[in-house]
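Researcher: Structure prediction, please.
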Amino acid sequence: MNNDIVQLVSSYVRLRRRGKVYTGLCPFHSEKSPSFTVYDSNQSFYCFGCGAGGDIITFVRQIENLDYVDAVKFLAQRAGMEMPEYDDGASLLRSKVLEINRQIARYYFECLRKPAGKPGLDYLRQRGLTSDTIIHFGLGYAPNSWREARNYLIGKGFTEEEIIASGIAVKGRQGVYDQFRGRVMFPIIDLRGNVIGFGGRILGQDNGPKYLNSSDTPVFKKSRNLFAMNFAKAAKKKGFLLCEGYMDVISMHQAGFPSAVATLGTALTPEQARLLSQYTDTVTLAYDSDGPGQAATQRASGLLSDVGIKVRVLSIQDAKDPDEYIKKFGAERFALLINRASGLTEYEVAKLKDRFDLESADGKVGYMREFVRLMMQIRNPVEQDVYIAKAAAELEIQKSAIESEIKYQQKRTNSRQRKKEERNLPVFSNARPPAMERETRDYQRSKNLKAAAAEDKLLGILLRHPDYYNAIAGQITPNDFITDRNRIFAQELFSRLAEGKSIDLSLLGEAFSVEQMGDLSSLLASVGDMSFSQEDLQSYSQTLLECKKQKSKEDIAAMTDDDLKAYIASLASKKQKNQK
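Model: Predicted structure follows.
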């Protein structure tokens, strides 16, 4: 397939070349130092931080939340190739749900212009949206009917089961009925231009939540997507603006700020933070100015900082949210507001000052107590020094006094953490070092460390040098592998090699799960660029056989009398069969 893994991954992750490999921040877990590695030589990737790994198909499966077949289709489409249709239930359902979403989005859009959709159009006009903006975002209206959307889709040839799977309708005691009724509809579009879900804003005084979002479906996960990300990623603006609501985003886009995005009815998630980190290194938080908005700012800033994003915070005054601010003061004033957005630490310091009376002694002491806690979270010594010096000057106290208090509190915190870790250490019944137990990934490997290490190297060498297989083909079988994980790998690899088939990672994705592909990539990465011969492979094979023999002795020694009799009987039976 005409897809290069470095080029593909580079569209999601900022990669830097380091010798023969490329590295970057992992898109699958939060990290500040790059541990994600792409190998151009064998078209694979591996993260030394979280263990994610595999070939280009595995990467697409994880980053796009696709099954194997859909990931192959994604890559085929990207390469301009036609793909035969697979008779795969999950893949077919995904395709059906995407088509339902596309059709119903068009239906909602058309309803907005009909007499029944007048409440929706009036609402959007009252909010100051132009016709161009309404068309740009594909906004629509869900009629205030229990089954109109369901009947429309039935008429288009979809089944009730497919409509329910899409989240457009739900099944209750009175049968299948529309999920969205009497609501202005906001289509949620993914990075490939597919309509994957909807948000609906209720009109009137009907019962129900003000905003209702699609539930998770085969094509939609709220925690992994952002509203208007499909537009923002193409905007030629430095940094993104992160908002709380659909209308904030739409109002900002209309005013000339196309890099605005919003979460989907939930607080920012780690997955959404990692998604943002793939496209920008700076995010300005434009949350509401009320209490919940400040709490959301606190949470989001931590998640964004964890993935290496520089956080700035918009200070919105005389308006409750960006939409209201733009309407009251205009786009130019809002642009100035963005330019004056404070850094995260500056924002937190300003919040502390609002909480305390800095003219009184008690106020200064209370402020300083919280200020010290804030400074303990800053890892950059230069940034910390700047804020300490500024606080000392403002409060007219010695800078050294603040520094001493920070060191004292840090020492106390470290001591408490150390004691907590000691209390939580696992208790082992044997004399094996706890550190050794913690380093092993599971109990089975921990009891067979030598064998597991030999297995790992054997499989890693085979993945790198499949032509070495004949050197061990008559010596060892998958049944000689002691750990279950590696035995499964050996069964597949040995079978393919015995039949003269390739064991390239790109051909193994259909046989193994995403997690198993990560383990295979780990085995391949463990041999790196080291040089191995066929004799090395034979040596690891011999080590494994010796471990298997020793384990058999230990297992026999641990047998009860009845187990031993049964074991001897089975050996005798096998001997008789061999003699016949």
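Model: The domain at 87-220 is CATH 3.90.980.10 (DNA primase DNAg catalytic core, N-terminal domain).
Researcher: Thanks, that helps.
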